[in-house]
Amino acid sequence: MADHLILKGSTWHVRLDVPADVRTHMKFFAKKVLTKSLKTGDKRLAKTASLTILAGWKREFDLIRSGKESRHWMIEAEQIRSEYLSELALAADDNDKLQLAMENRRVNAMSLTLRYGLTELEREEVKQLTTGTSKPKHTISEQLINRFEEHQKKYKVIDKTASVQASNVRKYAAFLDQNELSMNHTSFATYLNSLNCSYKTLQNKIFAGTSYWKFLSTLSPELRKQENPFENHTLPKPKKGKPVSIEYIAFTKTQIEQLYYTSLDKGDKTLATVIKIGAYTGCRIEEICKLKISDIENNTITITDAKSKAGNRELPIPNSLQETFKTLALQSDDGYLIPSSAGNKYGVRSDSISKRFGRLKTSMGHSKSHVFHSIRKTAATLLEQAEVEPLTIMYLLGHDRKALTFNTYAKGPSTAQKLRALNCIKYNF
User: What's the whole-number mean pLDDT along residues 337-358?
Assistant: First the structure.
């Protein structure tokens, strides 16, 4: 019966054995076999109809098993424990209330056991946990956090945000572990109060926790009836007024030359080359680090996958960079012009080089207002001082030409115009 079909009378039925490890679950309690009528005598139609039913049953088996493996059932056990201890405190010397509290705990624990199909050892764990005879556990396992991160990515949360959310949940779990606390509203409030963070950072931690709770509720629908420990928290009021944002300041020509030669003196030829290309083209650091040999044709570089649509552009290689690009192409061993450790976990190739630039400019006394992006500002300033047409400057830097006529109908400056403009930028290196 490899196709799981069985003929009863003139009607086909689908049949599947219930695995032993899920038979204790309430959904399949004491069932060894699942059967369902396919309401047809045609075997081909029956086989097609059976596939969906079999897939559904097997998916339910997997969900039950995942609940056991990740042990998110312990979250409900903690809720039962909390309710039980509260009822005991209210019962005082009232024997009837005491018996009712004990009975409620027993019924709730049994319901939990059946819904998750827990083993005998796990049932004993539930008993100790819900009666308060064992220490509370925070129930946020590393496996659950990893599943949460993958769940967020699946539902179109960008990778970096999903990773940060998982990191925030992981930090809360470490706090609970260190202080032997369980996951609840009080412990999360205590955690927030222990942090010396900005208002926005605390909001992000609450948002991460709320997202995690929603994820847990997809695994355990019963949690939707429970108090969300990450909601209704009072945070210190943020300071009035808009936050002061850092405005990037252009480097002077002399400062860029000093950055270039200092990086060479430190033996970082790659960083020096990136500074040089940025200085002569105004390209963003990631645009430079993503350039491939295949992006060069007829002394022109093509920038794709830029920060914006307008950033995708073609730039003639200025005279000052002709030899640099030839050398980079000859030395490349992976197709990229700029050697890199292949980027951080988000695929950013410029990550390590950007950090090296940050350390370099800080060591030379530059403030937070000076970043690699400041080199773009310098390029824009030099082009403007050379009386290059504003629309040409916008094209060279990959800025959106917002005027409808130019943005929709004009093709932009010619290669010759762009080359003349870039050759206006002069440095002593």
Answer: 81
